[in-house]
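Chapter summary example: a protein plus cytidine-5'-monophosphate.
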Amino acid sequence: MSIANNNILLGITGGIAAYKTPDLVRKLKAQGANVRVVTTSSAAEFVSPLALQAVSGNPVSSDLLDKDAEAAMGHIELAKWADILLIAPTTANFMAKLALGLADDLLSTLCLATTAPIFIAPAMNQQMWRAAATQHNLHTLLSRQITVLGPAAGEQACGDVGLGRMLEPQEIVELLHNKCESPRPLLHGKKVVLTAGPTREEIDPVRYITNHSSGKMGYALAAAAQQLGAKVCLVSGPTQLTAPQGVELINVQSADQMHQAVMANMAHCDIFVACAAVADYRPINKTPQKIKKKENELTLTFVKNPDILSDVAHLPHPPFTVGFAAETQNVRDYALAKLHAKKLNMIAANDVSDSKIGFNSEQNALNVFWSEGEKVLPVTDKHTLARQLMTLVAEQLTE
Ligand code: C5P
C-alpha cells in the first residue's frame, strides 16, 4: 500500500493542533492521496471547515444526523471509502472514546464501521498524556493494532513542557508513507517470547516474598513486538495488567514455574526478552503449615532460583536474547559485565535509584548495549520506549 491514489479519511478532533490540519491535507494531497475530512463538533472551533473543504476539494462532514451529508455519502459508505483512517490531532477524550468503542458522533462511528487501518496522532497537555487513564487507553488502542504516531515532546500551547505535542504535518505524512510503503512489519513472521512482572516465592501456605515490579514494561514490550508483526508469547508473573489482544499469555507465580514455561516455548523462538523481576532466591522448602509466631527471631534458608535468561542464552541454538539490568550505580559497567557473563545479544539497563522512572512508574529510560554498539533511549512513557527498544532489536536481528 502507498499513500498515492489511496483514500485517506482525515478525522480532526478538538485540540489547538487542529489549526495545522489544512497544511496536513495539502501535504497528503501532494503525495497523491484523495482526502476527505470529518471533524468533531469541537474541532470546528479550532479550524475552519471551509478552509478544509477548499484544500481537500471535498465537502467536510461532522454530523452523524446530517440529512444532506448522508444523502451525498452516508457514514457507512464513507467508512468503506477509506483505505486509511488518520485522526490528527487525537485528543485524550477521543482516545478514551475509541478505547471504549463509543459511537456517539460521526467520527467515532466511522472508527467502528471501517475496516481500514487506523492511525492516530495524539495531542494534549503533557500531564493529560501521562495520566493513568490515558496510558491505559493507549495500551488498549495499541493492543487493537491502532498505530500511534507521536506525540512529540516540547513546549505546549498551555506553557507546559513535555510529551503531548502533535507531530508536525510533514512528520505525520512521512511516517504514514513509511508504514504504507514498508512491505512487511519489521518482526513479521518472528516468534517473540517475553517474561514480565514479579515472581512470587512461597514461604508457607499464606505468605510469600515478591518485589515491586508492576509488569508494565514487559506488557508494553509484548504490545510493541506484536505491533511490529511478531507472534508473541508472554510469560507473566502476577500483575494487575491485561495482556494485549492476540498475545498468548501464560500466567505463572514462581521463578521455577516461569523457567519451565519459558523453556517449554523455546521451539522456533527468534527473540527472547527477559523483562521479569525474577526473585534470585526462594525459601528452600515451603512449610506445609503456617509458620507460628514463637521466637523473637526467625531464620529462613533460601536457595538460588534458576537464571532463566542465562539458561536461554546458553541453549545450543539460542534465540536473540535480550536482558534487563536494574542497577543503582555504575549502570554501564554492570550492564556490560552482565551482557558478557550471561552471553546475551543485548542488555537494556535502567537506573532504579531514580524514583521518577523504572519500577511501578509510567515512565522509564534505558541505556541499551550490544556487542557492536550502544544507544541511550531517554525518559519517555513505557509504550514509546517499548516500541523504540523492539525496533532496535529488530534492526540488530536483521544485521
Ligand atoms: O542477574 P540479574 O538478576 O541482575 O539479571 C537481570 C536480568 O536477568 C533480567 O533480564 C531478568 O529478567 C533476568 N533474570 C532471569 N532469571 C533470574 C534472574 C534474572 O531471567 N533468575
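Key point: The chain has 14 helices and 19 strands.
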